[in-house]
Fold this protein.
Amino acid sequence: MVENKLVLELANRLNGIAILSSDITDKDLSGVDFESLIAMARARFSGIAAPSLLTKDLLVQIVKDKDAGDVLRERSSTQNKSFEPMAKGISNNFAVANQAFERTGGKVSDFADFFNDRLEKLKAIIYDSQSSSMSGMIHNIESVKQYTRGREVVLVGMVYDKIITKNGHVLITLEDETGTAKILFIKPEQGRGGQQAAELFMNSKKIVNDEVIAVRGKVSDPFIIASALVHPDVPVRQKKKIEEDIAIAFMSDIHIGSRLFQQKQFDRFIDWMNGRIDHKKELAGKIKYIVVSGDLVDGIGVYPGQERELSIDDIYRQYYELFSSFAKLPEYVQIFLITGNHDAVQRAEPQPTLPEEFYRDFKLSNIHLAPNPSYIMLNGIRVLGYHGTSLDSIIQGIPGCSYSKPEDAMLEILKRRHLSPIYGDNPIVPSKNDSMVIDKVPDILHMGHLHKNGYSEYHGTLIVNSGTWQGRTDFQVRMGHIPTPAQMPVYEAKSGTMNVIDFNSSGL
Ligand SMILES: [Fe+2]
C-alpha cells in the first residue's frame, strides 16, 4: 500500500489552491469525505492568489468545526446510526438519455427543417396509434382538392392558424408538406348533434397553433367539415411498477438565493432523508433517486429588480449553496439536476446541462447534471423531466387550463406529444431535430415552473408537478397565484403509490 495515499490525493486535488503541511498524515484524513473537504478548502482559500498553507490545525478545524464544517458534519458524523435505508442495498440502475439536437444558424430553411422534423415525427406517432381506424384513409392535403363534395377524408398536418368565425365556428388552417386546407368545426346548435358534436367542438377550441393533429371530415369546398379530431396522444398502458422496493422523489424550483427560499423546510428535508425524523422514516430510506426539474437557484438578472429579492446576489455562491445542500444527502441517493429558466444556461430550449464552472468544487459521484428536457431511466422507469416553461403559453392558449391545476396543462402537452407546441411564446433553439417532441412514451412526466403541486394519471403515465421550495413572491401576489412550497412527491415504484411529504409541518 502506498504510504500517505490520501495525503497525496488531497495535495493533488488542492494543487494551486493550497499546500499541505508536512505533518498531515493519512490518519488525519481517514473517514473524511474528500469531496466535501475539497469544497470546503476551496471556499476557504478562494480569492487568495498564491497557494496557502493548509496546516494540520486548519484541517482539523475544517473537518470538525461545527459552523465552518457544515458539509462534512452532515455527511460524516450526524447521519442517524439507527437508520437502515432500504435503498442503500439496491444497486444503481440509471441512465440519462443524450438528447441529440443540432444547433443551426437560424436561417429560414433551418426553421423549415425544424417544423418538418416535428411534422414527420408526430405524423409517425399518429399513423402508429390510428392504424386500425384510419388506415387507408389518410390523404395528402393537395390530393383532396380534386375530391367531390361529400367524400370522407383524413388529413394529418400542423395547425397554421385558428380563428373563430362570426357565427362562432372554429376554422383552422392545416398544413402538410403538400399544401394547406381549411377545416371547419361547426358549433352545434342548441340541443342538437348530441354529446359527440359538443365534445368535438369543445376540443376544437383547444387546438393551438403549431400542434400536429389528424382530422377526419367531409369535403365541402372550400372547407373540410370536421367530424373527428385526433391528437398524437399516448397509448393506454398500465401504470409502471417494478420489482425493486425503491422510491423516486421529485423536486423543482428550489430557487436557492431568493429571500423566499424555504431554508427551514429544506433543512427538514435533509434531516428526513438522513433518517433523523421518525415520520415516514421507512419511506425516506426507500428513496434511491431524486429528480429536480429546474430553477435550481434563483439566478441573477432574470427579471428587472430581481436583486432586491435575493439573499445571495452572486450566482456562484447560489450554486455553491445548492451543491453544499445536496452534498448533505446520503451518498447512495442519486440526484439528477435539470436546468430551468432561472439557471445559468441559455434561455432557449432545449437547455444544456449546467456548465462545470458552477460545480467544479463538487465532483460528487451521486449528482448528475441533465439537460432540459431529459429522459431519465430509473430501474426501468422512464421519467421525462422538463422544467415546464411552456406551461405559461399552454395556460394562455387552451381554454380550461389554469395556474391552479398544472396537471391539466401537462395533460394537454402529453396528448400533443410535444413539450412546447406553441411556437413563439417560449423561445426554442431551431434545430434540424425537434427534440421537444415527446417521441418516447414516459412512465412519469415531471415538471415544475408553476410553483404549484399537481398530480394525475393519464393512460398509465403519471403526471407530476412537484411545486417549489420558494415562498409566495410579489409577482405571484399580483398575479393571484398561490404556490405550494416544500411539498415533495415521492413515488413508491413497487406498489405504485404516490406520497406527498409536507415539510411545512414542524411535527413531521
Ligand atoms: Fe421557478
